[in-house]
Amino acid sequence: MHNLFTALKQDTHANHAILENTFPFSMYHKDSEFNHEAYLAILNIMRVFHQTTAETVKQAALQTPSLNRIASMLNSEVVLLALNNDTHALSSATLSAQQRYNDTHAKLEPTTRIKNKDEPVLNAQAIAQLTPYSNSTTSHAIAAIYVWLGSSMGANIIVRRLEAMTLDIPTEYYQAMAGCAKAWVSFKQEVETLLPELGLDNESFVKNAVQDANAWFEFLISLGKRTAPNDTPYHEANV
Fold first, then answer.
1. Predicted model pTM
2. How far apart are CA 231 and CA 239, in angstroms?
3. How large is the greatest C-alpha to C-alpha distance in the chain, in angstroms?
4. Over the stretch 201-231, which tens digit does the pLDDT of each residue have?
5. Residue 175 near residue 82 (C-beta atoms within 8 A)
6. Residue 129 and residue 217: Cα distance in Å, rounded?
């Protein structure tokens, strides 16, 4: 069988690159001043992604209990709590700054509407329409975990970069994801053991897993495009 993880790495590379260059994730490829709006957009997008994939994995594990051996590696409760904490902290800081601005410029007409920073990126119906569907719940779940844990691999680097800015940026989410990264090797080993047990060590499963992983990347890309402000350059918002 063509190695599953080799295929996942090679055949999702294009969408991975698109995601990294799509707003708001493209923020991490710039040396410019920290962008609070982009960072908050990232946190909101990742909250939708983690909530959606965690539910997908949970439902798959109900059908195939042996998937619990890798589902637990997501540490989803800790990650989602960290996201909520960071979002709340960043929202509070942003709104406080806006209030100070409004108090100072009380006679000026505001040029932009400040959104409720805790509002979801999309409503439940829109998320449901964008959420990938697969005929194979097992490949769908394994692909979701692959994207989740794969995205955690650079978390330590991001934490160090944000903390170096000395702007009191909340980083609890990326610290939680750095913890998830420790499960990467175990995840690959467990999947390679699990697939033969389930009778899924074949090329058909590899094809399904790659398709599902790309669908999860496209889900993130779509969420990013939904958050892009009107003044975001076209090549960033629509790569």
1. 0.84
2. 15
3. 70
4. 999 999 999 999 999 999 999 999 988 665 4
5. yes
6. 15
